[in-house]
Amino acid sequence: MWGHFMLHDAVLVAGKDLRIEARSRVALWQVVPFALLVLVLLAFAIGPDQASLRHAAPGIFWVALLFSTVLAIQRSVAVESGEGTRDGLRLSGIDPAGIFLGKAAAIGVQLLALQLILWAGVTFLFDVRVHVIWLAVVACLLATVGLACAGVLYGALSAGLRVRDTLLPLLVLPVLAPVLLAGSKVWQAALDNNVSSGTQWLKILIPFAVVYLVVGIVLYGPLQEAA
Amino acid sequence: MSTSMSTSDGALRTPWRPRWLAVVGIGAVVTAALTVWLGLWVTPPDEVQGNLARLLYIHPAVATVALYWAGGVALLGSLLYLWPRTRSFFWDRLAAAAVEVGAVFSALTLVTGSLWGRPVWGVWWTWDARLTSTALLLLLELGYLALRRVPADAHIRAKRCAVAAILIAIDVPIVHFSVDWWNTLHQSGTVLDPGFNLHVHGSMLWTMLLSFLAFTLIFVWLLAMRYRIEVLQDAVGDQELEVSLSERWNEDAELVGVGGGSGAPGGDEGGGS
Predict the structure, then answer these.
(1) What does the CA dihedral B114, B115, B120, B124 come to, rounded to 10 degrees?
(2) Which residue segment(s) compose the domain that B204 sits in?
(3) pLDDT at A223
(4) CATH number of the domain that B38 lies in?
(5) What is the pLDDT of residues A56-111, one digit of tens each?
(6) Which of A2, A205, B94, B210 pairs with B226 at a CA distance of 20 to 30 A?
(7) Could you tell me which residues of chain B have a Cβ less than 8 Å from any Cβ in chain A?
């Protein structure tokens, strides 16, 4: 019964966040162009050589995704930063775990859309062809769960602080490093048609996603009180 | 007014300083001096690495303190603070002190490892699993300390920092395993930690064990001193608050005294409550 309420609350919160995004279009006009900008900048840093670009493409994809995740988290926190908004959410009787899941789901949906665009970007810019598509897709789905859950937790940790915009990247990027490592390796394997290496690396993404999902459900309540 | 001043003054005048702390401090100095003497003069140079092997008396002990002692105390303190039944600022201060001392030891681990790596491996830095995970640990600890510096209500700050420390503790094994795999998958000739390929025996083994004791005692002493500073900081904060409050009270009292005391002399004494 509790689980049912929690999911119902999560859907409400996710719907609210996504509706705000759909109306304000900040994700569309700021986060997406920023992600593409990171692709182009990293390509500049590596140079025009097609072979080295293709070699670096998985890493570039995941770095762009990580940086954009930070922006998405900041946006998700900013939505709640208005006068009394967080108190309103807390007093609405919605389960903290439901709020956590809802906010994570909203970020997750945005990250999935962003990954589709980035995928198209690396295909177009670096002439990359993914051979084992299911492997790359599974990596993206698992990474989305992990990034969204860890992101919402750290967003809540920095919420309400005057220095949150400079503090959040410092706190969250080292935490997301395993996703960058494992995600790049799975993508490399998917490009090289090396399924066994790819599935090995999925074993990092699975615990990352599960652990941050569970810890988020447990810790979001105390964290919300501390914000 | 004077009684409330004396309580916070008392906390400053007789700060927390147990007797065992002096024993730990003396023990740390003696064991560290013995380690230096044994490590530099008594033990022979290594057959393969010569004098470079003497770093064995510093680096493993420093790394052990950084990873296990500091990490363990920080995690334990944070968990016990979050648990409502054991919630006390003692655990919060202890965890914060452990992370700060841990950050120093993590940095020392990287520096001493790098000093050894340059002549032996030929590079200051290599993307080995242990190096990478230690570097990330240091960055995570710096993030925690940055969060700690953000001014906030003491309870809120303590709760926030406790959650941050637990999240760091979760991340460390994941980072470690991921870089471990990354390395073993792509580098067949992984360079081993010095402990794995050196034959440690005789006086070298004793010196190494002594170094573990020395750095553990240093860690305990630093942890306790850092804890003491946290206590003092809180006492100073309380005192400043009380001083400014009492000044404010006096201002009000004087204003009342001036306003109401135009006809009645001695009204300024009445505001001293």
Answers:
(1) 40
(2) 18-232
(3) 83
(4) 1.20.120
(5) 999 999 999 999 999 999 999 888 887 778 778 778 888 889 999 999 999 999 99
(6) B210
(7) 82, 136, 139-140, 142-143, 146-147, 150, 152, 155-156, 159-160, 163-164, 166-168, 170-171, 174-175, 177-179, 181-182, 185
